[in-house]
Structure formats: C-alpha cells, structure tokens
Amino acid sequence: MDARLVVDQLRVQEIVRGDGRVCYTVVDADCSVVAEADGFLRTCRAGMDRTYAYVLVDHLRWLRFAGLDTGSVSLEDLRHYMAALGADYPGPFGLPWRENKRPYGHSALKTAAACLKGFYLYLGIHGVNPALAEALRVTRLPTRADRRRAMLGHVLHSMPTNPLAPASGCAGIRRCCRRALGRCCWGRCRARGTGWWSRGWPTAVSGSVSCGLRLVDLHLREQAACGQCRGPHVHICHREDNANRARVKTKTPWTWQDNAVCGGTVRRASPAMIHTYFEYITTQYPAQSVHGMLLVSLHGPSQGQPWTTAAARGMLRPAAARVEIGRVVPHAFRHSFATAVLDAARGNAVIAREAGGWASAVTVEQVYGHVDVHDPVFTAALEKVWGTRP
Ligand SMILES: [Zn+2]
Known about the structure:
CATH topology of the largest domain: hpI Integrase, Chain A
Shape: elongated
Helix content: 40-55%
Bound molecules: zinc ion
CATH architecture of the largest domain: Orthogonal Bundle
Distance between the termini: 74 Å
Strand content: 5-15%
Strand order of the largest sheet: 7-8-11
C-alpha cells in the first residue's frame, strides 16, 4: 500500500465528555481508539492533551511509516525521529509522513520531546518497551544554567533530563554579542535612539517597561524626594493611560504625592544609564512633549511620539542582523543582566531578583526573604555588573 495512505489512517479525534469536558484522543481508520495513545492522553492535564494528541498522532504515523511499533522502537530511533521533525527536508512534499508541514521550531521540538518521553514512560509502567522507558528516565547533576533558574526557588540536587529534548538555545545574549550589539546600536543608530539598548536601560528595566517610563518616574539623583532609595533610581509604575499603550505587568501600587512618584517597583540606575539619559535629554529629546514619555521617536512621521513596544523590537531586529546574532528581543537583555548579577552576587538569587525584577519574585521571596536595596553585597554585585567597581 502507498505509505501515504497508511499514515493517513490515524487522526486526532475530539471527544466531548458527559460533563462537557472536551478531550482529545487518537483514532485509527476504522474509528477505533488507539488504546496506548488514549491511555496516555487521559493522564495529561486539560489544555495539554490537545497539543500532545497532535504530537502523538504524528509520531504514530511515523512509526507505521518506518515499519516500527511502540514495543520495539529504540531511543536511537526516537532521536532520528526528533531530528527529522526539526529538519528542513528539501523534498517536494516535505517529510513523507507529514506532507507539506513545516519543520518544528525550537519550542515545538521541546514540546514533542516532553510528550514522547511522557508517552514512553507511561507505556513502560504498563509493561511496554521498559528498556526504552529506562533509557529515557535519566537524571543529571544541575548545571550552572540550572542553578540560575533556581531563582524559581528550588534547591537543586539533580535535574530530570530528556534525551530527546533539542539543545537549548541561548536564553540571554552572550556578553560578546551584547558588546557587538551595543557598538552597532550606539555607533550606527544613535540618532534613532537605539543607544538605549547598549547603556543599561533595557537591562535594568525590560524593553516593554522602558516604553512605559515617563520622565517623572526617573529619580536620577541622590536623596530623591520620594525617600525610597538613597541612590539614583527609577520607579516602574503600572499605568493604563499611556499614549503608546505600554503597560507594565508589575502592579506594585504607586502614588503621586508632593509632585513626585512614590512606590511602584524601584530599580537602581547605573552611572551609564544616567549618562545616557542626560545626553539624550539635552541633545535629542523634543523640547515640547505633552505626553511626558521617556522614549520617543526622533525621526520620521512618528517624530516626537512615544515608542511602542513593537517599535522597540523593530529597532533591535536590523541591529541584531548586522552583528549576526540571530533574533534578539528586548527581554533578552534583562535576562543577560540578571544572569550577570547572579554571577557577580555569587549565586544569591534574591539579589539577582531584586536587580532584575525577576518574574518569579513571589517564590523567591517566600524562600529567601527580601533584600534591602542598600545592602552592601547587593550594591557590590550591581557595581560589578555596571563595571563601576574598581
Ligand atoms: Zn524615587
């Protein structure tokens, strides 16, 4: 029989259960449920079962196409399968068992790896192909990158690992890339305001946050009126009414009292940030700005208008392309920054969290408590990252 006919027999079926819940399973040509897949999908939480059903149906089609079955497939076979999923196959119909489908991207490959591992571990428990389940059930010692992620608040002794998972991409921007990007942005696009990217601003306050900053949020001198931080700092405040619709996720309450912003999330500003700010405000910032937003477009039809988050991303794209470091999003700067602080603070997650405003703040706080922004260790770590520490 034509291989394509064989693989077309399997498909994902949506099932509406008695209580209204929608589930997903895999059925064969004769509409019979594929028991192994169904059993596994029933163990997946709602929301994941649909994704996993599609991953699984693709995998089961491949098994048939390759003349294999769940009982005999080896780890090596699965590795080939994963490689094929991510491969850009030059044939006219794509990969034969998945016609005209695009190769999986990094995150889809991670999902597929997790699904397949779960599937074969499930089968292993039920006596099918236990050798494969054993091969998939490996753990490893935590790496430095894992310990960085331990900001999530866990103490790591060993990491579950997945031999099928794709090699991890670079989450932050490596220091050398960052420097190259900085040179590129600062040197060539200075007039367009991209200098911001290289001078500490987006690292301390993420890209989208930068777009939501107003001039009044900046307390860039010692002993500011708010009394919340002795050194120069920035208040990150959630606002619904910004002209560029930039909204900060953090919703720490803030107020406007005695003509000064008070509250919000306070981030310390580096000397380089202050320097960039004054250079920008004295030479480039439009004299009359009604919106009071910090980052504005300096050229073109939108001149004088505040940057949107999309514009900020758009600005990074050509710069990243020029220095050939792939796709760079504003958030990556912040990730790099947090990592650098974590290194400088010898793994003190609270300090890194405080410096970078890490998202999983709640967990870290529960585990480690809170760090004072004037803590000497905190200051030392920041200064090391800022490059101002002798
Ligand atoms: Zn302040």
